[in-house]
Design goal:
2 copies of one chain form a homodimer. Chain A has 214 residues and is mainly α. Helices cover 75% and strands 0% of the residues of chain A. The first copy, chain A, binds a DNA duplex (30 and 30 nucleotides) through helix 3.
Chain lengths: 214, 214
DNA sequence: GCGTAACCTTACGTGCGAGTAGGTATGATG
DNA sequence: CATCATACCTACTCGCACGTAAGGTTACGC
């Protein structure tokens, strides 16, 4: 033991910085290996640090994963709410929301999308994720309610909820597709989603098409 | 060693039967634990058999999982193609397809849905699953092409593919929802999906509604 | 009735990876 | 310069679960 320490090629860094580096590494490794197959050793190595540091700063493997989930989730939410204005017409709101969403996923392909896939499958995290999804469904539902109010119509709560769920689900699916196709264009994907969701298949087939305002 | 064998409460069974029991158990355990957290011991115990039997009949853990995936996937596909007639009008085709799909998921809640979630997340199986998904997208695409031909229209291949993808994705999402809500009714879910997919949000909001033929 | 093949078991070997013990450098503060 | 906290490391322990060796027991054909 007591080997001469490796030449101090890398400087010491304050905790906050290292934590971010670790989270970056963790997201990378979790996304390419999956939660269980990812080893703490690999994460530590990828972060350019040794394992006990990870335990010291971010705690156990589960806690680390939760931290990843939390950071990425927050970023996504912020990206979306930053894009969508509150008192715009519903189609414009939806369009901006989708645009922000797919833009974000496109910029964080391997990071976010696969992390999402992970959380959905692994038992302990399903809860944490579904909370986030609930929030998105809430947002979409609210939007739909607003649109309905403007029309003077009403729809049963359940139907609305499920519709919002379908919308969110379809978006997640296309996000997966986007994450797997590096050449695909986020904006184009958003436009396609918009057409599917807003105009509807039947009217799409009749030639009706929604498009972004010029 | 050489303990007196446990009283032969359970008879010896032919291979084919035991294999099915093992697959049943495997689906149950994989779905409630996730691939990695599931142990071969637990699967064996759940099947009422000892571990080496599982290895003898179905092979390694990965192979076992693939076998589950294969059986469930085949069943689903059969359920769907059995339901949908080839030369019906497109909306009727879609409706029957959705009905069959949600009916199947409703009947195999914990089994199929969670298994699907697993395969999507775990590295080695993503391929096997995506093959199946491709087939479904193919089917849906073909249906859309047929519908378009009837209208004398044309759409770029890419757009069509992505639309089919969105449709399949939205369905999978609602299937997840269905799997998590034991009280929900599969047919009702199918109807909601049909409304979302066929009529489109915009026209739904204007009061237009698709419904099953009486 | 007796061999042979299929069915089924208990009881391991083994490797990998989560988590930890205990110690070393380095910078800030008096 | 002492001293204290923070950053960081090497080198372990330990349990879990995959996969297997080696052997028992029932059925069935001849």
């Amino acid at each position: 033991m007591a080997r001469v320490t490796t030449s101090p090629t890398f400087k010491r860094l304050p905790r906050a910085v290292r934590e971010q580096q670790m989270l970056d590494a963790a997201v990378r490794v979790f996304s390419r290996r999956g939660f269980h197959a990812a080893s703490m050793d690999e994460i530590a190595e990828d972060a350019g640090i040794s394992k006990p540091m990870v335990y010291a700063y971010l705690g156990t493997k589960e806690e680390l994963f939760i931290a990843c989930l939390h950071r990425e989730g927050t970023r996504l939410m912020e990206a979306i709410v930053a894009g969508v204005g509150a008192d715009l017409p519903p189609d414009e709101q939806l369009w901006r929301g989708l645009r922000a969403f797919f833009g974000f996923v496109g910029a964080h392909r391997d990071g976010w999308a696969v992390l999402y896939r992970q959380a959905r499958a692994q038992q302990p995290f399903a809860g944490a994720l579904s909370t986030m999804r609930e929030r998105m469904v809430e947002v979409v539902s609210a939007m739909l309610v607003q649109a309905l109010a403007a029309e003077g119509r009403e729809v049963r709560d359940m139907d609305l909820q499920v519709m919002a769920y379908a919308l969110v689900g379809a978006s997640e699916s296309l996000a997966d597709w986007l994450a797997d196709h590096p050449d695909a264009d986020p904006d184009k994907t958003a436009t396609r989603m918009m057409n599917f969701a807003w105009v509807g298949a039947a009217h799409l087939l009749h030639g009706e098409t929604w498009h972004a305002a010029p």
